[in-house]
Amino acid sequence: MLKFNANRMPMSDRIETLRDYTNDYHKSVVSPEKFWSEIAENFDWRKKWDQVLSWDFETPKISWFENAELNLTENIFERLLPTHENKTAIIWEPNDPKKNPIHLTYGELFKATCKFANAMKSQGVNKGDRVIIYMPMVPEAAVAMLACARVGAVHSVVFAGFSSSALADRINDCQAKMILTSDGNFRGNKNIQVKAVVDEALNNTEFVEKVIVLKRTGEAVEMIPGRDLWWDEALEGQSEDHLAEVMSAEDLLFILYTSGSTGKPKGVVHTTAGYMVYTYYSFLNVFQYDADDVYWCTADIGWITGHSYIVYGPLLAGATTLMFEGVPTYPHPGRFWEIVEKYKVNQFYTAPTAIRALQVHGTEPVEKFDLSSLKVIGSVGEPINEEAWHWYHEHVGKGNCPLVDTWWQTETGGIMISPLAGITPNKPAHASLPLPGVQPVIVDSEGNELEGNNVEGNLCIKYPWPSMIRTTYGDHQRCKDTYFSTYKGMYFTGDGVKRDHDGFLRILGRVDDVINVSGHRMGTAEVENAINEHSNVIESAVVGYPHEIKGQGIYAFAICDSLDKSAEVLEDEIKQLVRKIIGPIAKPEHVQIVSGLPKTRSGKIMRRILRKVASRDLSNLGDISTLLNPEVVDDIIKGAGLD
Ligand code: PRX
Questions:
Q1: 124-171 pLDDT, tens per residue?
Q2: Confidence of residue 400 (pLDDT cuts 50, 70, 90)
Q3: Ligand 1 centre and the CA of 470: distance in Å?
Q4: Cis amide linkage into residue 630, ω under 30° from 0
Q5: Whether 544 contacts 553, CB under 8 Å
Q6: By the 8 A CB rule, do 486 and 262 touch?
Q7: Least confident of 238-252, 267-281, 558-572
Q8: Which residues, including other chains, have CB under 8 Å from residue 14's CB and lie 6 or more apart?
Q9: How many CB atoms lie within 10 A of CB 511?
């Protein structure tokens, strides 16, 4: 079915019926190369590929659309402008509802991108250079990403809530040459310092040559001559024309840091062509976007959801994408719904944690606004519990909007398992079925594939898809060890999954030492390292526990040496330290000072027991007699007030 009245019809890739889905899925498994090359034909290529796919999961080495040449932004702008010049690309809703929103057409966004691309070039950024984007949710942040893609620079967006040391780690890891930032950031009733955090980070790095600063809050900031310049200054005299850099299909598009179960966050690398094809395709099909729809994803561009489904996927599909600077509860708990009414939003995509936080305020704030424009509602980032699913479906979707529970990861680049709105069936709390091109398998602990229904195990993917992780920046071995070594010949997701009696997949959450707090990934090791920086801490262990709003909360156990400080003081100092070292999202909910940690005879911490205590559930504590120090368990239970 053709949706655009023009010679470019990107909507022709949209699945329209369940039968289409079944056929396309089958085709994508039987002839994946044919399947993806037909979708890729939609795009403008400077040079076509020699081979659609070459891969091995051993090295791992994955190459899609080999030797093809393109620029992703030409596929948003030059490809779509003949039909989309005056169509709104980005609607921006500011934090303060009394301030003016911004509407940018594709034509205006193109000019802004070219102008900023020229500014970056004249400040010394070239193809392949790494650029950190540490910015609030403003249209300039999207322009910055697109301008990087235009000049062939590799962007690495860092969520503007991360601390200066987390930012410095990322700058050093990717050896960034430039930082794009703002003076400050409005979030709810807070005015958050941004430039000051950058300045502090830059005391501990040596790579950054230039910092371009957007004036957002107007507060006084220190500008270092020769290094720092204002956004407007950088744009002065720059042309609105820019000839895009020609990129190879596998040239890096961006690096995005994410937490794992060990060590520091790793830089997940995504490359140009495969990511472009997959985010476009998945956006169109999951959300069933129609040509005049207004689509809104509430994520921050600091996360993969913001990359793939605020910026790249929607813009490649010629959509109108809404960017919101603020928070769901400011100035009132109906803000999301007010925005839906104001812009007649058709597709709304958010996280379960936001739904649960709003659920607390009851249905009145939802009912106050007209949500009749909504056609599709979506969920991402963590398992959605059935209660939240039903509340969302009934009160926001009014019982008649398909709810797409989309499972995916920073590493997968795009949505992997999800209903296609109105096409494949909905089942509460089930991500349900894989998208065409995605081949999930459930394996037992030995890596045997569990076929059939009513099985539970670990989720792996056995065949490449275009937007998959290519490497972890600067450390390919880490990529291999983390994702491709647990089960031979497969990509291991780190998630547990169940296939129910109907063949629908339900994601059960992480099976490794990753905690999912409000849809944000935190590595236990990362939080422990921060806690261990406290001068009184001898050893610590961090676990996740079920949290009503956040999905999971962080619970830390610490052995301390100081007896001259009260436990209360130590607990508070530890919380503040984690906040300072990583950022507010990593601050533990609970810190318990303990005399010892339960260890196996080989010295490994028995986290299972700690998880039980943190969850306040002492049933099935299991056999503790094999522990090196079983006596500490009683102390820990007592200390948690559970005796
Ligand atoms: O555990 C899964 C959970 O979030 C993890 C990926 O986190 P991140 O890379 O930060 O990306 C989040 C946004 C894509 C997964 O390993 N997760 C994500 N979506 C879902 C989910 N768990 C259950 N259901 C989902 N829909």
A1: 999 999 999 999 999 999 999 999 999 999 999 999 999 999 999 999
A2: very high
A3: 19
A4: no
A5: yes
A6: no
A7: 558-572
A8: 1, 3, 284, 285, 288, 289
A9: 17
Ligand 1 contacts (CB < 6 A) are 258, 304-305, 379-383, 405-410, 431, 493-495, 507, 509-510, 516, 521
Query: For ligand 1, atom 3, which residue shows the shortest CA distance?
Result: 382
- How far is it, in rounded angstroms, from Cα 40 to Cα 129? 27
> What is the residue with the minimal CA distance to atom 7 of ligand 1?
409
What's phi and psi for 586, nearest 5 deg? Answer: -95, 0
pLDDT band at 3 (very low <50, low <70, confident <90, very high): very low
Residue 508 has phi, psi (to 5 degrees) of: -100, -5
- CA–CA separation, 201 and 184 (whole Å): 15
- Do the strands 178-182 and 210-214 form a parallel or antiparallel pair, or are they unpaired? parallel
- Closest to 380 in 3D by CA, of 414, 330, 346: 414
Beta strands at 514-517 and 520-523: parallel, antiparallel or unpaired: antiparallel
Q: Which residue has the tokens 């007592």?
A: 638
pLDDT at 265: 92
Instruction: State the distance from the centre of ligand 1 to the C-alpha of 454, rounded, in angstroms.
Output: 22
Per-residue pLDDT band at 11 (split at 50, 70, 90): low
Please state the separation of Cα 190 from the chain's center in Å.
23
Mean pLDDT taken over the chain: 95
pLDDT value at 8 more than 70: no
**Nearest Cα to Cα of residue 521 among 556, 564, 554:** 554
pLDDT digits (tens, 9 = 90+) for 50-84: 999 999 999 999 999 999 999 999 999 999 999 99
How far is Cα 161 from Cα 141, in angstroms, rounded to an integer?
15
H helices present in 303-343, as ranges: 304-306, 313-316, 335-343
Out of 521, 522, 552, 585, mutate this one to test ligand 1's pocket (max ligand atoms within 8 Å of CB): namely 521
* Matching residue, tokens 């999912």: 516
Note the pLDDT tens digit of each residue in 176-230: 999 999 999 999 999 999 999 999 999 989 999 999 999 999 999 999 999 999 9
Distance 504 CA to ligand 1 centre (A): 17
**Protein residue whose Cα sits closest to atom 13 of ligand 1:** 381
Ligand 1 atom at minimal distance to the Cα of residue 417: 26
CA-closest residue to ligand 1 atom 22:
382
Strands (E), 97-218: 102-105, 130-134, 154-157, 178-182, 184-187, 190-193, 210-214
Distance from the CA of 591 to the center of ligand 1, in angstroms?
Answer: 26
What burial letters (b/e) apply to 293-325, b meaning 16+ CB within 10 Å?
A: bbbbbbbbbbbbbbbbbbbbbbbbbbbbbbbbb
Q: How far is the CA of 303 from the centre of ligand 1 (A)?
A: 11
For ligand 1, mutation pick of 269, 416, 495 (most atoms within 8 Å of CB): 495
Distance 30 CA to ligand 1 centre (A): 28
Distance from the alpha carbon of residue 493 to the mean position of ligand 1, in angstroms: 10
